[in-house]
Design a protein that fits this description.
The chain is mostly beta strands and 323 residues long. It has 3 helices and 18 strands. The radius of gyration is 25 Å and the shape is globular. The two termini are 15 Å apart.
């Protein structure tokens, strides 16, 4: 086999591997603090969880939807910036007449995040109007959130919610994604690495919502750095430490929505996304995502091309035109 043919194929292998392994922001070179001992893949998945505590509120809380009907499950998510051992978050719900109708206490997780569900049902849930949730942590830290309740007759109607975890295989790892869904079931979740997208397929039977706890090590959204005229495409230039968080792009059945809510900490971003009866797909688009196959795909491609070279050497198969 001619040297020119082998050289041409080696260029194909090199270019193919580069295309597969170049992640987001590879165009902007930064200093690698670990020199040649760390790959771009390691930097991407080691530093993208970094977020300054100063950018987080001392205490935050949000609901999965802005409006609820009688029998609905209200999903509340929040975050304590500096959690302390054995200190619980107290949640109080007041109706439109400022009457206390629900009280709960819970310990936040080690990273400060918490999730609580309550049912909008029973004799205390009659008055229509704006309801207020007051969250308190310790003697001094408090915050609140509001939602609208459409009123009821005091009956014990309950709309079922599913609280589960989806195990997603990506880049040779298993990511356990906790979720709460109302009005349907989760059929599947999958990573679309070239689109930086987490795709969720649903089977819905009514209007509802899904609340997902997404690890930053799996998917994240960051504001890109300023353009660099000296940018290059070398894979070792990836470093997302210090980049500010950006909003995810969320589509439901292909339609862009902005009504979703989010709470977050250093490790996870918790999204609550509404959907309508009949919706079947939710796409969450970020700027950083694990590759579905990662370096394995490049290895398989390289092996395949090397095999072709070996076969061509024996059979006389030509890759370059003969002049």
């Amino acid at each position: 086999m001619k040297r020119s043919s082998i050289f041409y194929l080696l260029l194909i292998i090199t270019a193919s591997i580069a295309i597969i392994t170049v992640p987001a922001y590879a165009q902007t070179p930064v200093t690698n603090p670990k020199g040649n001992t760390t790959t771009a893949y390691d930097i991407l998945h080691g530093d993208n969880q970094t977020i300054s505590l100063s950018t987080l509120s001392p205490l935050s809380i949000k609901t999965d939807l802005p409006t609820y009907n009688q029998g609905d499950t209200i999903v509340m998510t929040g975050h304590v910036r500096e959690p302390e051992n054995a200190t619980a978050v107290t949640l109080r719900v007041f109706n439109s007449l400022k009457n206390l109708i629900s009280v709960a206490q819970l310990l936040p997780s080690s990273d400060g995040s918490f999730t609580k569900t309550i049912l909008a049902t029973g004799p205390l849930w009659k008055e229509a109007g704006n309801y207020t949730i007051i969250a308190q942590y310790g003697p001094y830290t408090n915050t609140n959130a509001t939602f609208h309740y459409n009123g009821g007759d005091g009956s014990s109607t309950v709309t079922k919610a599913i609280n589960s975890t989806y195990s997603l295989q990506a880049a040779g790892q298993t990511y356990n994604i906790p979720y709460i869904i109302k009005g349907g079931i989760v059929s599947s979740m999958s990573i679309l690495p070239q689109q930086y997208t987490l795709e969720i397929t649903l089977n819905t039977n009514s209007d509802g919502s899904i609340t997902l706890t997404l690890p930053r090590s799996m998917i994240d959204a960051k504001i890109p750095p300023p353009p660099n005229p000296d940018a290059n495409l070398t894979g070792a230039t990836v470093n997302t430490a210090g980049l500010e968080d950006d909003n995810f792009i969320v589509t439901v059945n292909g339609k862009h929505i902005t009504q979703f809510s989010e709470t977050k900490n250093q490790n996870v971003r918790i999204l609550s996304i509404p959907f309508s009866n009949g919706d079947t797909k939710i796409d969450i688009v970020g700027t950083i995502i694990v590759p579905e196959f990662g370096p394995i795909a490049a290895l398989v491609l390289a092996i395949a091309i090397i095999s072709i070279i070996a076969v061509s050497a024996k059979t006389g198969l030509r890759f370059m035109p003969k002049y």
